[in-house]
Amino acid sequence: MIRDRIRIISGFPCYNKLMKVTLLGLPQAGQQQLFSLMTALPLDNIISKPLEVHQGVCDVKDPRIIKLKGMFNPKKTTFAKIEFLLLPDFDLSGPQKELLVSQLKNADELCFVVREESAKDEVSSFISELIIYDIMLAEKRLENIAKDKKRNNNPLAEKERVLIEKCKTLLDQEKRLANEPFGEEEAKLLRTYQFLTMKPIIIVVNSSEAAAQPADFGLPAVALSIEIEQEISQLPENEQADFMKDLGITESAIVKITQLCFQGLGLISFFTVGEDEVRAWPIPKGFSAKEAGSAIHTDIAKGFVRAELMKYDDFIAAGSEAKLKELGKFALKGKDYIVEDSDILSFRFNV
Fold it and tell me: Are 306 and 330 in contact (CB under 8 A)?
């Protein structure tokens, strides 16, 4: 017997896993204030423990979820979420090096906060520190490979040596490994070493102006005034839009930051909608309809029958599923259909 349909709308980003983004910066860059804004954790508690790692979760305020909430008036609304880890002030030569490196290696993405007046220098110094660490890591691995070769002649070790030598050459040229083309097998092996320059990086520029634009760092970047963002967060929701309009901005920079984080992680999302709940379910870009269903429950993937497809923009324009069908913009898709950002899917499955 076919189970009840579960309606899905695809859109923003995670797939039963909270992606971890480390938030860090030099002293007085504003990372503590930004972390407090994004996670709603008390700033006083954060500042009073500067050498600790602080952990919090931030909602991704996708405007499409908000639009769907207005259409369905659900009992519950659940946004996609992302986990942020606030690290102590960045200094890989200081006493916190071991802690910093451990957190950076285990992060899915790095978010580096800089001051506007010294942004380019701070970003350049940050990237240089990551490159230096990776060079040392590559050198250490090459030493170990050479020692192991004396004990046993492993053909896989030779492939590894060639790859690490390639990485070291790139790093010596001050190139981030994330920018270089590696084959699938090479990338899989490199992930086991947790090179820091393989991580996606987002730059946040703390400016004095709400509508400031970031400089070109060769990296995804967003500028904001943390002081003004604090003012926005303290206003009632119905007053925030007018306040931002007066400042020449259309949305909070916090929304832009979370969107950049998701893009950097290669994620999109689908939404489940209905009177009970409107919810975002993040998935990696490139997931099939069957794989997307598994983000909700493994039974959907096991017993996948088909996915009924409506494009998000078409659905919003039509105003209802019935009207969309009248317009002939309703389709059936199989398990191999690649889910696109903003798709609306209803899954049929049988287990």
Answer: no
CA distance 80 to 76: 13
Superfamily classification of domain 6-13+274-349: Beta-grasp domain (3.10.20.30)
Tell me how far apart the alpha carbons of residues 286 and 191 are, in angstroms, rounded to a whole number. 20
Name the residue type at position 113.
V
Q: How far apart are CA 136 and CA 129, in angstroms?
A: 11
Rounded distance, CA 161 to CA 141, Å? 8
E strands within 147-287? 201-206, 221-224, 267-272, 277-284
Report the C-alpha gap between 231 and 219 in whole angstroms.
28
Q: Which two tokens stand for residue 156?
A: 């896989």
The residue among 21, 55, 84 whose CA lies nearest residue 265 is: 21
User: Could you report the per-residue pLDDT of 303-348, keeping only the tens digit for each?
Assistant: 999 988 888 899 899 998 899 999 999 999 999 999 998 888 888 9
| Short-list 113, 89, 114, 109, CA closest to 99 | 89
Q: Identify whether the C-beta of residue 111 lies closer than 8 Å to the C-beta of residue 39.
A: no
CA–CA gap between residue 127 and residue 76 (Å, rounded): 42
**pTM confidence score:** 0.88
Q: For 295, which DSSP code?
A: T
